[in-house]
Amino acid sequence: MAAATARLHALVAAAPTRQLAEAFAAAGHELALVGGPVRDALLDRPVTDLDFASSATPEEILAIVEPLADATWDVGREFGTIAARIGDEQVEITTYRADTYDGVSRKPQVAFGDTLEGDLVRRDFTVNAMALRLTPLRAEHESAQTVTDASPQLVDVGGGIEHLLSGVLDTPQAAEQSFDDDPLRMMRAARFSAQLGFEVAPRVVTAMTELAERIRDISAERVRDELTKLLLTSGPVAGIRLLTDTGILDRVLPEVPALRLEADEHAHHKDVYEHSLTVLQQGIDLERSRNPDAAPDLVSRLAGLLHDIGKPATRRIEGRTVTFHQHDLVGARLAKKRLKELRFDNDTVKSVARLVELHLRFYGYGEQAWTDSAVRRYVRDAGPLLERLHILTRSDVTTRNRRKAERLDFAYDDLEQRIAELREQEEMDAVRPDLDGEQIMAILGIAPGRAVGEAYRMLLEHRLEHGPAEPAEAERVLREWWAARG
Questions:
Q1: 2-159: in CATH 3.30.460.10
Q2: Does the predicted TM-score (pTM) go above 0.85?
Q3: One biological-process term from Gene Ontology (predicted)?
């Protein structure tokens, strides 16, 4: 705890915290460092954002901060928050709040509070409801009045320190009241449990289960953002399990809980839900090992979680075997529909759906060697998603049969090697026909139209099948095709 205290003191002593404390004290307003920065300093995690709460109104905050800041902007003045950049740090300062939902609107009803303690008790979880009250004292000096700081006061309204030490996620007030104030907090519980590795208090789990339907009161955009934050943690599986077990995921992403298919006493198949969670985590591990310096990849993680969501709709029992024919195509359609409803951007929707559609392409490579043209088509169909497809396909191997797993791993190593060799030989990332549209029209003596497009696609197929051709050879192929076409 001594080390944690030292970290807190260092955080308070550094600019811009000290500058802000002095400025707010001089203006006669209270200022406290709140929430995440306090939590992360106590946990010895990197402090990336500085969040403050104050007795000042948004207009008063702006007036105090502007002389110190390089820039200021409204994060949402109606919500009481002003953001500023001071030196190298970005800060947010919010008027003490007491938000509630009216049970009808999908946005919180904002009410400003009077005290720091009242603000903290309305926050989501005790580990986020701690604050350092910055209480500067004024001292007389020879030439001017200055503000010097005394020791900051830790304010803990709900046992946050105890819960940090024990690794428990709980609410400062009754969990039902907290989630009724803002139902999105139920999804935050899943995110923080995954992010911090904490156990969720039983009373919180109970409240999440009982109030699961309230998540429908939250806008799709806010649900999407919270789901994204969960998936971008280092271990989102625990959070997804919690959302599934409490029934919340049935209201947010129902295709995932639907993967818990009933076992058939005569036919056998993998537990698709557990398999999908394993694929998600294996994909995250591969993502880190292949691209250690890259930011977490949302597209890859969504694809890993959703790659088999077409299975429930395509499940058929054939003798003692369960089949899922064309679940890749059905799953791609379902993924596109759900992600659109959650207001994901078009690029993310298209990329995830395409990966789901392609995730079975590799199977069969181990049984019979692909031709060079098949490898070229694999690369062409994946396009810019090729590296993500590598990760998804490799992480999709969850068999306990070590020999089978090693065979599939070896086969994919071989495929990646062949892709690298062909890419070096043929510049596969920019595969185009050996003749462009202008050359096609000149050789055939035709004007722009459908025939030019058909010729272009024919030459592209020829390139994929046979590799690059010299101009004379490409012209011969074109003329033969034209003559046969009549």
A1: yes
A2: no
A3: tRNA processing
